[in-house]
Amino acid sequence: MAQSGIVARLDHPADFEGWRRQARALALAEVAPARIDWQIGEEASGLFAGLAEPPPVPANGADLRVPREFVELAQAVVCHRDSGRFDLLYRLLLRLQREPTLLHVVTDDEVHSARAMAKAVRRDLHKMTAFVRFREVVGLDGGEAFVAWFEPEHHIVERVSRFFVERFAAMRWSILTPLRSLHWDGTTLHLGEGASKADAPNDDAMEVYWRTYYANIFNPARLKIKAMKAEMPEKYWRNLPEAELIAPLIAQAGRRAEKMVMKAPTLPPQRHLRQSQRQREMLVPATDGLSTWDEARASAKTCSRCDLCHNATQTVFGEGPLTAPVMFVGEQPGDQEDLAGKPFVGPAGQVFDRVLGEAGLDRGRAYVTNAVKHFKFTLRGKRRIHERPNAGEISACRFWLGLEREFVKPQLVVALGATALHALTGHRGSLASMRERDLVLDDGTALLATVHPSYLLRLPDEEARERETARFRADLERVGRLVPEMKAA
Fold first, then answer.
1. CA nearest neighbour of 339 among 374, 304, 305
2. 240-254, 392-406, 436-450: lowest mean pLDDT where?
3. What percent of the chain stands above pLDDT 70?
4. What gap in Å lies between CA 123 and CA 236, rounded to an integer?
5. Which terminus of the chain has a smaller tally of CB atoms within 10 A, N or C?
């Protein structure tokens, strides 16, 4: 074989699958790293463009062996902007065939370089998920849409896309960057070319409220400028609507903190506390004589049995046929459920529907509800972040869950998560100790305990997500065996 150069073409700057496929063939043909020219885009004529024919693959069935850790490392490194990243990974691939424990040699220069690149990419991913700010625009059809501008340091747009699709599944949005762009129409994700900042809107009406909110939650007594800038580097400020407030808030922090110390806290007068209690008692709905599901649902709309009613948009009651053989009980409504007034319609609901289908079950034959009927959250910027309900809130809502069980009378109840299991049985231990056991409720109804679909969304890596999704699917398949009426036609 002549010692000519080899051009290996990659479709885009973060083309991990293209690199892996070509690196494997080149490594099996024992092609030296110095002979390979990794090129991106259309300038290369194709795989092995520098040869008359591709390198031959050994006929003895030889294959490459690498630890899973290398695959994960390579997936991150290919997203880095360093032009030598593909060559570095190829050299590590060859060395791993001779040195299987190479990645554990922290003093090795090439291992150190790859890990540093992967760390920079992970940091860039984190910053993009934290500092993207959507602005509302009018869509092409006249409807609501949102556009954000972000300037990543590395080629992370594809890698981070899943986070935004799952987090903002119900919105139509675009994220524009100089490298690549993402467009979500509510159903399908489209990847586009890079854009310029001029293509993104400069402001929207909600940002006035957001800046007011940010200024009011800024705590001068807890200000640590060095830590703040480490977590939110100044280079990101120019694209944050609150950035214009940061400098004056820092300048005024000392004086504001002193005023906070000098101002002693005060308690409300007793007459105010008594009046507040009377008002809450007036809001408690009449629950005597609720003889139908419709009456219970209507009454729950004005429920004030706990304080969650004050901040949530609405009560989210269960839904499904009242003759359903199976009742699924989750924890509480999430952000999307709170807005829509329906259970399991957000990201966790989409996972639930998908795995139900994979298990051969028909959601339309099930009754789906939550242990707590109001969304409990804390505000973080414009986002409402889920907060787990406490024992008092679970207890207060057990009344409504009891009515739903009474009206539906399911053959089987499925507790999705520890909160649902606590509401149904009072069990406060681990969910793992109750999973895959044959359980029975106090009225004799069969009970099955499994994880909440949101647990699958929070898992940190793809391998764990696939493993736990398979376990969740197996639990739902067990539902189909216990209650055949739930199986899709």
1. 374
2. 240-254
3. 79
4. 13
5. C
CB-based burial label for 68 (10 Å; 0-12, 13-18, 19+): exposed
CA distance 254 to 407: 60
Average pLDDT over residues 405-412: 96
DSSP helix/strand/coil, 387: coil
Predicted TM-score (pTM) of the model is: 0.48
| Block residue for tokens 């308690």 | 267
Residue 187 one-letter amino acid:
T
pLDDT of residue 93: 95
Least confident of 168-172, 187-191, 233-237, 304-308: 233-237
Name every residue whose Cβ is closer than 8 Å to that of residue 214 and which is 6 or more positions away in sequence: 242, 245, 381
Structure tokens at 128: 């993009």
**How far does CA 26 lie from the centroid of its chain?**
37
Distance CA 28, CA 144 (A): 52
With contact defined as beta carbons under 8 Å apart, do 95 and 109 qualify? no
- CA–CA gap between residue 369 and residue 391 (Å, rounded): 18
- Amino acid letter at 425? T
**Residues 282-328: pLDDT tens digits?**
444 445 568 899 999 999 999 988 999 998 999 999 999 999 999 99
* Residue 458 dihedral angles phi and psi, to the nearest 5°: -90, -5
Side chain identity at residue 161, one-letter code: S
Q: What whole-number distance in Å separates Cα of residue 77 and Cα of residue 296? A: 56
Host H or E run for residue 299: helix 293-300
Position 252 scores a pLDDT of 72
- Over the chain, what is the mean pLDDT? 85
Give whole-number Cα distances, 322 to 188, 207, 400, 403, in Å.
34, 44, 15, 12
**How many angstroms separate the first and last alpha carbons of the chain?**
60
Tokens coding 424:
């149904």
